[in-house]
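PROTEIN DESIGN WORKSHEET
SECTION A - STRUCTURE
LENGTH: 464
TOKENS:
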């Protein structure tokens, strides 16, 4: 048995039978057929960043897709690229640059996750992720087609016109319907962007973001204060947005960028000196006001694996800890009221917020299990979580309370980060969840693809 765990929360230790790293589609097909012959189940992983146990299953054969990272054909006219599902964002961005040396204009990725880069395209599709685009839908909107190996070992090309039901199910389907081997990703023209930074209170966020969108802003977010003892808690924040500028504007050689040491210091302060960290962060961001970035690479960010080990040592903590993330959605007009209520809940429950941000998403009308069921404001919280029974229960309670709040405002939450939601919460946020499980069973009756996440939900919905 091999012990696996997720990278960020480290709260999903799971023993798998074996880890296979196929490098071709044929090897994936063979692995699925071999597993069928042996009567064993398969779990599927990419960058291992999901935190709800979606990528591992106890006693399964783990297919690690990161070896499927080849880059295929690029359509320079329509702006698409075919790439292996195991490719990570920095590799894909580098490959796009290498393919277009001398081209003007160039194509680039439209969106990726923020806060971490070593995540795969397959993982992005399986969670139907989003980035900090101001006018974007989840990544399903950026996908022209993909190839899927299903439980029968068949190779299916899936798009809006071919195997369309598989397309809708596997996008945001968390690996339940098969292995995505290759993806045809839609690109957009790579443009130069100017970052504008303002310190504002949340009541100004929506009117200001709308104004900036009218001026042409493409990306942006609002990173709020995490000091629970301050009246600014979840209220005052750094609003950054990115507007296209002329190609002739020169990029500065010496930009004030957040490097690994700054990141380490900020995250240390977020744990030990929350009263000061916002000012430090805000002054760093204000120092970048007016800086120019490319639309693809500005989405890359610093992330240090195992950073929490050092925090634990610095804080003299007796038990190890990590951050658990959750993402809540509310109709945009309720953003301020939600954050006010959330501040009250988090203070009462005495949970520590390490980082939080607000972004926008547009409605996804295509995936079977859409989290963006409306044009929502997305609120992301990273909660410090001690790896003890009490510590984990505290974060789980806090996230359930935040989900209740979001639901009360007509909102929802993201399935990616944990499996702590109650069944009634899942049913309200995802009314089609039961049908999703039924369709999984119909398409994979022997349960070839299994994860701790799927097993949890199957069992939860078995109860009357
Ligand atoms: C620090 C951090 C920041 C994040 N930021 C964001 C963000 O800004 N926006 C956002 O939307 N999400 C964000 N996430 C969540 C992240 O995007 C998802 O968890 C994503 O699925 C991780 O991709 P991965 O390659 O690590 O996949 P894994 O964690 O390995 O797997 C995740 C899911 O994808 C499935 N999967 C992986 N590869 C394949 C494949 N080839 N075929 C079929 N299924 C597959 C797995 O079975 C599993 O269900 C963040 C997570 C962390 C830890």
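SECTION B - SEQUENCE
RESIDUE ASSIGNMENT:
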């Amino acid at each position: 048995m091999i012990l696996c765990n997720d990278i960020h929360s480290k709260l999903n230790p799971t023993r798998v039978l074996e880890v296979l790293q196929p490098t071709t589609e044929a090897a994936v097909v063979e692995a699925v057929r071999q597993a069928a012959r042996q009567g064993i189940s398969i779990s599927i992983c990419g960058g291992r960043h999901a935190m709800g146990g979606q990528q591992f299953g106890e006693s399964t054969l783990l297919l690690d897709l990161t070896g499927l990272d080849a880059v295929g054909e690029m359509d320079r006219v329509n702006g698409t690229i075919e790439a292996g599902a195991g490719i990570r964002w920095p590799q894909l961005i580098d490959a796009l640059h290498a393919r277009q040396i001398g081209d003007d204009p160039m194509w680039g990725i439209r969106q990726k996750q923020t806060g971490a880069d070593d995540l795969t395209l397959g993982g992005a599709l399986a969670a139907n992720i989003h980035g900090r685009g101001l006018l974007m839908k989840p990544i399903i909107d950026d996908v022209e087609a993909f190839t899927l190996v299903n439980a029968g070992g068949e190779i299916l090309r899936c798009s809006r016109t071919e195997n369309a039901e598989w397309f809708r199910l596997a996008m945001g389907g968390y690996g339940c319907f098969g292995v995505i081997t290759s993806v045809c990703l839609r690109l957009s023209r790579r443009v130069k962007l100017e970052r504008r930074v303002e310190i504002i209170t949340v009541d100004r966020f929506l009117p200001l973001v709308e104004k900036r969108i009218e001026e042409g802003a493409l990306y942006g977010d609002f990173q709020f204060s995490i000091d629970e003892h301050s009246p600014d808690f979840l209220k005052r924040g750094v609003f950054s947005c990115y507007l296209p500028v002329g190609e002739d504007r020169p990029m500065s050689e010496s930009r004030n960028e957040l490097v690994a040491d700054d990141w380490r210091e900020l995250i240390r302060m977020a744990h030990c000196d929350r009263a000061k960290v916002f000012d430090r962060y805000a002054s760093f961001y204000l120092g970048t006001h007016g800086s120019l970035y490319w639309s693809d690479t500005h989405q890359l960010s610093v992330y240090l694996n195992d950073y929490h080990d050092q925090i634990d040592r610095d804080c003299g903590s007796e038990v190890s800890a990590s951050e658990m993330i959750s993402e809540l959605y509310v109709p945009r007009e309720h953003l301020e009221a939600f954050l006010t209520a959330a501040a009250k809940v988090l203070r009462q429950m005495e949970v520590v917020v390490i980082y939080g941000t607000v972004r926008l998403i547009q409605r996804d009308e295509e995936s079977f299990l859409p989290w963006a069921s409306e044009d929502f404001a997305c609120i992301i919280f990273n909660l410090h979580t001690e790896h003890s029974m009490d510590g984990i229960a505290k974060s789980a309670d806090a996230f359930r309370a935040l989900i209740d709040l979001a639901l009360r405002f007509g909102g929802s939450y993201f399935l990616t980060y944990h499996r702590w939601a109650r069944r009634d919460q899942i049913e309200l946020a995802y009314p089609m969840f039961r049908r999703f499980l039924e369709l999984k069973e119909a398409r994979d009756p022997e349960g070839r693809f299994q994860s701790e996440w799927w097993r949890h939900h199957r069992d939860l919905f078995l109860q009357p």
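SECTION C - NOTES
The pocket of flavin-adenine dinucleotide is lined by residues 8, 44-50, 54-55, 65, 85, 113-116, 119-120, 122-124, 126-127, 129-131, 174-175, 179-180, 416, 451 (CB under 6 Å).
The first helix runs from residue 25 to 38.
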